[in-house]
Amino acid sequence: MARAATPATPLRQQAAMAGLLLPARHAGISLPADVRLMQATANTVLALVVLGLLAAGLQRLALAPLFNIQAIRIAGDVSRNSESTIRANAAPRLAGSFLTLDLQQARAAFEAVPWVRHAVVQRVWPGRLAVQLEEHQPVALWLGSDGNDRLVNSHGEVFEANIGDVEDDSLPRLQGPEGSAAAMLAMLQRLGPLLGGGNDGDLTLLALSDRGSWRATLGKGAVIELGRGTDDAVIERTQRFMQTLPRVDARYRRPLASADLRHVDGFAVRLRGVTTSEPVLPARQK
Questions:
Q1: Per-residue pLDDT of the chain (286 residues; tens, 9 = 90+)
Q2: Cis status, amide bond into 138, omega within 30 of 0
Q3: Cα separation of 82 and 89, whole Å?
Q4: Is residue 22, in this structure, part of any structural domain at all?
Q5: Are residues 222 and 245 in the same domain?
Q6: Phi/psi at 128 (nearest 5 deg)?
Q7: What is the 3-state secondary structure of the chain?
């Protein structure tokens, strides 16, 4: 007996009868907006959870004993501090492992050590730090207005250090407004050779007033008012004065007490034991 032909069954009904469900895109049916939003939110949360787990795992791995800083190698200028002293001062300020250490903070930790001017810190696998140090080279003593004396390095920078550690106790002194150390050091280096060639001693104190007037004090106490102006103008006045001073020495044979170079047409000089001022006469009675 022949069976009647079964009419064609739609594709989705056949899939349902077979226990299968095709994706909505194949059926031409889109999901509601709230369902799509829930799916997107769930996917986002899942991705964040996975990333968080990965980050936590990496952080735990970075803090594992395997990545501890095992050694610090120090090179460069270490004449003022021993390597053990540098490590003892800087190591407590180092935070993190070999992988998580902030190199900028590590550099600041080493530069906080007395006498250290500049530090370069690098990672060296496995577990080591290579530190290259540059120390301050003191060239002058800075007399602070607050009474706190500090040191000036060869770059014209004022820095804090134990002045008693300086072997040279004859460093010239600088006294001036805050922030003027570099300019004063440059002037000191130009004036020193000029004023150090006489019989009154080397330049021991260079002062700069708030109004920009220079004053030099020599080793035997002579004070020279150099006046204001550009550096070149002050140097030119000083050169003319030093060329004239030998004639004054030869004539009076007295040590210099003070000099004033601020006059337009000459210099005012005072010698020890000799006065160049005229006596003040009493006024005539009428």
A1: 444 444 445 545 554 444 444 444 444 567 777 777 787 787 788 778 777 666 665 556 545 456 688 899 999 988 888 899 999 999 999 988 888 899 999 999 999 999 999 999 999 988 899 999 999 999 999 998 878 899 999 999 999 999 988 988 889 999 999 999 999 999 999 999 999 866 667 999 999 999 999 999 999 899 999 999 999 999 999 999 999 988 988 888 889 999 999 998 889 999 988 755 434 445 444 4
A2: no
A3: 11
A4: no
A5: yes
A6: -125, 155
A7: CCCCCCCCCCHHHHHHHCCCCCCHHHHCCCCCHHHHHHHHHHHHHHHHHHHHHHHHHHHHHHCCHHHCCCEEEEEECCCCCCHHHHHHHHHHHCCCCCCCCCHHHHHHHHHCCCCEEEEEEEEECCCEEEEEEEECCEEEEECCCCCCCEEEECCCCEECCCHHHCCCCCCCEEECCCCCHHHHHHHHHHHHHHHCCCCCCCEEEEEECCCCCEEEEECCCCEEEEECCCHHHHHHHHHHHHHHHHHHHHHHCCCEEEEECCCCCCCEEEECCECCCCCCCCCCCC
Domain boundary among 109, 135, 161: 135
Same-domain check for residues 102 and 160: no
Domain with 83 in it: 65-135
Q: Identify the CATH number of the domain in which residue 172 sits.
A: 3.40.50.11690
